[in-house]
Amino acid sequence: MHISICLLPGDGIGPEIVAQTVKVLDAVNARFGHTISTQTALIGGAAIDATGVPLPEATVNACKKADAVLLGAVGGPKWDGIERDIRPERGLLGIRKALGLFANLRPALLFPELASASFLRPDIVARGIHIMVVRELTGGIYFGEPKGFEEREGEQAAFNTMVYRKSEVERIARIGFETAMKRDKRLCNVDKANVLEVSQLWRATVVAMAREYPEVELTHMYVDNAAMQLVRDPSQFDVIVTGNLFGDILSDEAAMLTGSIGMLPSASLGTTSPFLYEPIHGSAPDIAGQDKANPLATILSLAMMFRHSFELETEAVAIEEAVRQVLKAGYRTGDIMEDGGTLVGGEKMGDLVAEKMG
Ligand code: NAD
């Protein structure tokens, strides 16, 4: 199978973690006999330095031609003073928009080997954390119109609009159901249907779609309760589907249950490929260029790419298993270091995972 991936290393630790992930990709090629090719394009601060803009046209074209996109991270203090419209982060928003990516998948998976990194009580962690948050990414209150500032009865006021069209809910709900079908077949819809009309439409749409997925057990939870349940007993969740605002908050909360930002991958999906894969962390300028960055979140993003873009589950599981083996053997980068672990740099971590793939 011939596959092409566009790499967007970006800024800070981005190039380091992407380089480690390419080692793993090469190992997948060798083991499974694929000819996966890569090409690299500019985004973020690196693109600003080279071209004056955070998302050059050439990058958009290179991404569109590829089967999938792997991003490192963008941003850093060097570009903080730049005017808002051409900041590095604009590159990220721009590429998501250009590729029509409306669904963000963020797994919160606690590797048993890293259980002590969780902020939760050991007895809660012992029940396991393996959640997938499916968040709508391009609608809802962050984008709804009208919005703005105005004067109301002589006083300053500000307002936003939370709006979803049925078709927007349908397409994200479908991703929720399809994701559940590939996992434990349990989908929890999170909304605020007891208060918000937009949530009532949301819920009715999800319920209607459930008929197409009789194997999936669908439940509903109000967002305030979901926030509580995530810390009370995260083991109860398989897949969560929710809107942009609620998903923004809950996916960060779910991520923190695992305690280690350097371990968490993500996928942004649309209707047609290419989709985008990236670690959830940023460019970590404080450790850039010191071989301290943990590449595992990016390597696990590659595993998601195999699963969601190429439907190559065996390869995805092989990557995840290689990561698990390396952790089991006690190797740790600084961010996940614990008593008795063997401290390694990012380069070595990449080598170890690639070796385990062999
Ligand atoms: P950050 O995620 O970059 O870093 C937060 C902390 O976690 C830092 O102490 C960092 O050293 C550590 N960390 C992050 N990733 C790590 C890894 N792989 N291995 C080891 N340690 C890791 O968040 P921040 O400091 O708030 O932001 C830094 C820059 O990144 C800013 O310019 C911000 O705008 C940008 N950012 C980019 C993205 C993205 O590209 N998707 C996301 C968030 C922030």
Ligand types: nicotinamide-adenine-dinucleotide
Instruction: Let me know the largest β-sheet.
Output: 10 strands, mixed
Q: Could you tell me the strand content as a percent range?
A: 15-25%
Overall shape: globular
The CATH architecture assignment of the largest domain turns out to be 3-Layer(aba) Sandwich
**Total count of domains:** 2
Find the count of extended strands (DSSP E, 2+ residues): 14
User: How much helix, percentage-wise, in residues?
Assistant: 40-55%
Radius of gyration: 20 Å
User: Which consecutive residue ranges, at least 5 long each, have pLDDT under 50?
Assistant: none
List its traits.
single chain, 358 residues, alpha/beta, Isopropylmalate Dehydrogenase, 2 domains, two-stranded antiparallel sheet, 12 helices, 14 strands, globular, binds nicotinamide-adenine-dinucleotide
Protein architecture, described:
The protein is α/β, with parallel strands linked by helices. The protein folds into 2 domains: 1-104 and 261-358, Isopropylmalate Dehydrogenase (3-Layer(aba) Sandwich); 119-257, 3-Layer(aba) Sandwich (Isopropylmalate Dehydrogenase). 41% of the residues lie in helices and 21% in strands. It has helices at 14-32, 44-51, 57-65, 88-98, 122-125, 166-181, 197-210, 223-232, 244-258, 296-308, 313-328, 346-357, and strands spanning 2-10, 35-40, 68-73, 103-109, 130-136, 148-152, 155-159, 186-191, 217-222, 239-242, 265-269, 275-279, 331-332, 342-343. The chain has a 10-stranded mixed beta sheet, with helices on both faces. A hairpin with a 5-residue loop joins β11 (265-269) and β12. α1 (14-32) packs parallel to α12, α10 (296-308) runs antiparallel to α11 and α11 (313-328) crosses α12 (346-357). The chain is globular, with a radius of gyration of 20 Å.
